[in-house]
Write a structure and sequence with these properties.
It is built from 9 helices and 14 strands. Helix 5 packs parallel to helix 7. 27% of the residues lie in helices and 22% in strands. It is an enzyme of class 1 (oxidoreductase).
Amino acid sequence: MISAGIIGGAGYTAGELIRILLRHPEVNINFVYSTSQPGKPVAAVHQDLLGETDLQFSGEIDKDIDVVFLCLGHGNSVKFLSEHQFSEETKIVDLSTDYRMADGKHSFVYGLPEFKKEEIKKADFIANPGCFATAISLAILPLAKAKLTKDEWHVNAVTGATGAGTSLSPTTHFTWRDNNFSAYKAFEHQHLNEIGQSLNLLQPGFSTQINFIPNRGNFSRGIHATAYTKFSGSLEEAKDLYMEAYKDAAFTFLVEEELHLKQVVNTNKCLLKLQKFGDKLLITSIIDNLLKGASGQAVQNMNLMFGIEETAGLKLKANYF
């Protein structure tokens, strides 16, 4: 069995990780570390786990575990790893932004399995992609892989309230979020950096703009993204490119149906729909921001790192009704 530890155990992504790993056939949770909840039952915070686990939050770590998941606020993973040492055999999956951008100083592999699978299999340290970055990258990277991104991208995406984490702010209160909709960080969202990095790796020299407008929706979880760009080929040619790009993908699927979030919420899937309007190719992409956009993808990466079935523990059923 793989011995796993979770750092930052009280947040949404940690709760999803615990839920997945408790059912994972190859994993045992060694500890769930939290500075705010030590000694308390995990199910007292993650109440969907009542009756399923006797785990308690720990104020200590086991440095000899097989894998550790960092579910810390952005900027805190670097600080935590500078203050805590794990064994040389411990693999690390970081869910923050801290190691996503290559800087030549660290050995973290960007963990987008659809495009980095072989590197992930050999990696000891994984930088798990951001939620918007996952949905958008899976929508646009097949064109970059084929060196066919010739013009700027226009992207509009909306995320649920869980995308903001558990910390309260004026825009996360129910009274603000309910029956409301808003844009934020237009053209400057932090996930643009990692999207651009991935695009340039597949299509070196790409320098045109990714025009991204992120939005807050009045629902709990999920991301619905639309991306379009000029494309001179036919719709069938585009579909062939995407089918080839994702022929070995465990969770990313090209579909003909109209997309809506209930098709993916509570799953590790990404569903993509392609449409052609004149000279423009439109790609719609949907994911669950907490699973394929965070904890589910983290477990998918762990599975690849340990050489076990990629889908282990992740055959989850959508909350359709």
